[in-house]
Amino acid sequence: MDFGRLITAMVTPFNAVGEIHWEETARLIDYLIVDQKSETLVVSGTTGESPTLSDAEKVQLFEFAVKHAAGRCKIIAGTGSNNTAHSIHLTKEAERVGADGVLLVVPYYNKPSQEGMYRHFEAIAAATSLPVMLYNVPGRTVANLSAATTLRLAQIPNIVATKECASMEQVTLIAAGAPDHFRVYSGDDAAGLPAIAVGAHGIVSVASHVVGAEMKQMIDAFYGGDALRATQIHQKLFPLFKGLFECPQPLPNPVAVKYALTLRGLNVGSVRLPLIPPTEEEQTYIENLLDM
User: Fold this and answer.
1) Distance in angstroms (rounded) separating the CA atoms of residues 119 and 127
2) Catalytic hit among 31, 118, 135, 185
3) pLDDT, tens only, 233-243
4) Is 185 a catalytic residue?
5) How would residue 251 be classed by pLDDT, with cut points 50, 70 and 90?
6) Pathway of this protein (predicted)?
7) CA within 13 Å, CB half, 39
8) Which residues are annotated as a binding site?
9) Scanning 1, 143, 216, 259, which has the fewest C-beta atoms within 10 Å of its C-beta?
10) Pick the catalytic residue: 37, 163, 216, 258?
């Protein structure tokens, strides 16, 4: 399974009463594929507000995205949790409705050992024929899937990738030691080009909602041998990469990017509690970011 080099972790559009806005979800999928050059979409990930989506909503999203994308891009379903049995259930549902792969986050809150993490991912992978992308984000899970454990998991045939948000050292170690079928993706827009330079295959992005076409140019420039052009694009986009999470103080994802999308004319709505919309000051900051 080739998920490409630019993957967007898609927001979930909500209507005025906080329900999934299906018409706008269709419009967003089209926009991300056509305008922002996404090669794969992750639905019901953290950016999609997975903690506040019910299982029924998640499965509906998986099925809707698969049908609406209609082969124009791959669909990865966010089915990970800190409950192995629950993750297996959602993964089987994702496979049933036709998803192209699943994203499995490192178990959060219960802080398993490295062996516990290995067995968690091993059990889910064994329960499906779908390609699996691991997701290591210590800042959210308070647990780091080590490079050694990642490389051990990479020996399982249908574990094919990792979305890595730990250190550049860890990206380098995994990329250097991984088997040929296994690919590393940066999960941090600001670290995307540096990660690619040390062996990552691509980026799982939030900023690609609004600058995906430019990010695709950056990636293509690097792989086309024009590192200087790639660097120039990265430097131009860097304030936006950082600013979407710091406006001007740390702002939880996807609060800023949802507001940025509304400025681009996409009616994706607000966020569900416990997240809250940006303040007037934060809105002005985001508006200025997009004008840069």
Assistant:
1) 12
2) 135
3) 999 999 999 99
4) no
5) confident
6) Amino-acid biosynthesis; L-lysine biosynthesis via DAP pathway; (S)-tetrahydrodipicolinate from L-aspartate: step 3/4
7) 15
8) 47, 204
9) 1
10) 163
Model confidence at 137, pLDDT cuts 50, 70, 90, reads very high
135 is catalytic: yes
Annotated binding site for pyruvate: 47, 204
Contact 188, 165 (CB under 8 A): yes
- CA dist 120 and 201 (Å) reads 25
What residues contact 270, with CB distance under 8 A and at least 6 apart? 14, 18, 258, 277
CA–CA dist 142, 280 (Å, integer)? 31
Neighbours of 89 (CB within 10 A): 17
- Spatial CB neighbours of 87, under 8 Å, sequence gap ≥ 6: 79, 80, 81, 104, 120, 124
Confidence category of residue 103, pLDDT binned at 50, 70, 90: very high
Q: Mean pLDDT, to the nearest integer, of 161-169?
A: 96
pLDDT, tens only, 61-72: 999 999 999 999
Closest CA to 283 of 232, 231, 235, 244: 244
